[in-house]
Amino acid sequence: MPLTTNKELLTLAKKGGYAVGAFNINNLEILQAIVSAGEAERSPAIIAVSEGAIQYAGMPYLISMVRTAAAQTSAPISLHLDHGKDLNVIRSCIDNGFTSVMIDGSEFEFEKNIEVTKKVVEMAKGKRVSVEAELGRLKGIEEKISVSEKEAILTDPQAAEDFVKRTEVDALAIAIGTSHGAYKFKGEAKLDFERLKEIARKVSIPLVLHGASGVPSAVLERAQRFGAKLPGAKGIPDEAIQKAIGLGISKINIDTDLRLSFVGALREILTTKPDEFDPRKILGPGREAIKQTVQSKMKLFGSSGKAA
Questions:
Q1: Predicted local confidence at residue 144, as pLDDT
Q2: Which of 34, 133, 252, 276 has its CA 20 to 30 A from that of 179?
């Protein structure tokens, strides 16, 4: 089927009380794993591409691969620019077939973030391209963080309401205590659910949770058993993800868990079969490991069985 937009996917998710996973790709095997998982689970999926992935694989290759995948699957998928910061790259994505873009102006002060976000909304007008923005900064809430520090990095509910009204974005990524990477917390996982509840009360558009990988123990253990050095890696517990969805999160970004799954499988093959030099037999198990991880996320997010 043709590529859909994030707005279409997330409107249904918000109404249905589930979340759609946004899964980052960098190569063919990761894309195949996500699409195959969506088919198996009858789940929608957002194919997320970062500016780094574009530099690595090339925009024409990525767009062509995702379009081909969409044409061959019955599960709805969108093509989304993740954490866009370069307006030239964002414009190129809009003009060349992406169906959703994110403008990440979270590093700017409030008025500048609004100004930059409105430029992207204007770029996307009339082109069937959704726009996601971000308000607040992703930094895990540590044990000794002060109230003033917490307020400085997390999304203010009133500011979120004002931001959405003034920018007219389709989705808003908020900061409630998650962070990117495999080391999200030094102590116990802490998310500000009361803040999420208040934001959801004030903002009518779908809300997005970035930095939401769980760093599953089985995936982490496999990677470490075959040589990965990841001491102290810790992610978001499944129960926290489910609570966030129940309080209004409609899109959840996953990247670290895919990387860990892929690398663990590759390390195992390279360690246990040192005579293997066929890339298909080395990368294939990595693809299967990602598929299993994505399927587990789709079940956790409640999107399984939601494909039309």
A1: 40
A2: 34
Instruction: Provide the residue type at 94 as one letter.
Output: I
Q: Tens digits of per-residue pLDDT, 227-276?
A: 999 988 888 999 999 999 999 999 999 999 999 999 999 999 999 999 99
What distance in Å separates the CA atoms of residue 297 and residue 20, rounded to the nearest whole number? 9
- Do 94 and 123 meet the contact criterion of CB atoms below 8 Å apart? yes
Q: Could you give the 3-state DSSP secondary structure of residue 236?
A: coil
Burial, 292: exposed, middle or buried (Cβ in 10 Å; 0-12, 13-18, 19+)? Answer: middle
Torsion, Cα 39 45 50 52, to 10 degrees, reads -20
Q: What's the pLDDT at 135? A: 96
* Residues acting as catalytic residues: 82
Q: How far apart are CA 205 and CA 230, in angstroms?
A: 37
Strands (E), the chain: 20-24, 45-50, 77-84, 100-103, 130-135, 171-174, 207-209, 249-254
Cβ neighbours of 43 (radius 10 Å): 26
Closest residue by Cα to residue 235 from 249, 221, 216, 253: 216
Which amino acid belongs to residue 243? K
- Report yes or no: 100 and 70 within 8 Å, Cβ to Cβ: no
Classify residue 232 as exposed, middle or buried by CB count within 10 Å of its CB (0-12, 13-18, 19+). Answer: exposed
- Determine phi and psi for 131, rounding to 5 degrees: -125, 130
